[in-house]
């Protein structure tokens, strides 16, 4: 199906918006009136620019407060409309959006609304324009799609149809099944947006919190299925008002937008993409750092052994159980220093996983390798983290470890079994995009979003996981654009005995993150513990949480650069990540940073 995007969904000047939409592969655009008014280009120049970029102008929007008004007022509205239709002819736009009136002058009279919209459509037809009438969720007298359709049906004018907008329909809780009663050819336009489920004024909700389909809580795919059953064959167009997108760069937003439509079209059976190849585990986590020594000390204290080194690059492999950490001190190190830069995902079909990622517009990374190296398929996640699709110890597939030569030191049997989860701080404007990326590209499941209080702001956190928890990635974002670098990334290591692991870490010279005594006093009030249990946690800096299934015990190392480690013991099917303890952990990390200046 053809895809389109409203210019209001992207930041920048009109030309920047058009460029970004075209580069992301959209077929057309809705031109938002204010974008045109603010542009130095004439309508003819905008039309030519769109044509050069291969974009059609699918809609001009919006025209407001037209219908069901006293005759004198309507005469003024028609004069206003004539100007717009003339402009649309110059622009090459053949459909105009008319929103249901919010004017105090409008009366509750469907017959009058139908009659005036019909006259408006008469005028539009002289200019080769079609009128698409849309019910705003906060319209004065018309606020539901079925009401707007009844008026359009009453008017019975060939140049008058309806525009359906998923936000207006789903935010009001209307049953979208009734859409199937509208003939497809009378649906002149379809606007799609999702939104998080919030209890707030619908106008504010719409203006600030819309997001791309698949990023919020609406069943946009379900609504779209009803629309497609009518035979609608116009574009799928994104109309998203969002405070974050307004500030973010247009190009990545446009790519995010297109990806959301690809995933949506796949969901309704209108796009055939390579099948998702769900990863089965974490093969490795790769840290880049200018200085390997602090990590050598930390990983050693955690019980890891440097088992191998890369044949051609300054990369060391540290292992314990199924946890594998690469420490890379090579030129690939980014300017901003120490960080978790890459994740190796255990994939049953690495090439297939890469094909899926590419089809969903993930940048495919060049293979940084010497000729004899194992070819690894890799793509970039929205935050720049490199995702390698690879295989560990499976005879039918090339093993990434073939590029490494053993140091002759086998891993010691320590307390760490593997990687429990990885936590990645997202740049401010990539949070919703990241969740959709991991779901769409990797076939992971997105868990509910939780807010976490930090002493200096509020974080939002959302996990993406496989069904069995073999891959768990916790995505976190700060509440403000300036937060990007403050919050660290972490690697959580799974152990069956966190007390023993924490003791071993201490005995080996590791320094755990100190946890305030007040935290343990509060734990004593919230939970019952066996004799001495709480004292052990207090002594070792172990935090405690419980859900309806089980218990979570965890502790943290100090931070190096942006990276720290967590030891976690998950018992009885506990599903979370200790979010209840995150404020205490964040405060402790701030305190350490203040002390060390690090
Ligand atoms: Mg709309
Ligand atoms: Mg964690």
UniProtKB/TrEMBL annotation:
Enzyme Commission number(s): 4.2.1.118
Catalytic reactions of this protein: 3-dehydroshikimate = 3,4-dihydroxybenzoate + H2O
Sample GO molecular function, one term: dioxygenase activity
Keyword Oxidoreductase belongs to the record: yes
EC supergroup of this enzyme: lyase
Domain of life, source organism: Bacteria
UniProt-annotated binding residues for a divalent metal cation: 134, 165, 191, 239
Domain VOC: 281-392, 418-570
SUPFAM superfamilies linked to this entry: Glyoxalase/Bleomycin resistance protein/Dihydroxybiphenyl dioxygenase (SSF54593), Xylose isomerase-like (SSF51658)
Chain ranges passing through the membrane: none
Summary of the function given for this chain in its UniProt record: Catalyzes the conversion of 3-dehydroshikimate to protocatechuate (3,4-dihydroxybenzoate), a common intermediate of quinate and shikimate degradation pathways.
Protein name: 3-dehydroshikimate dehydratase
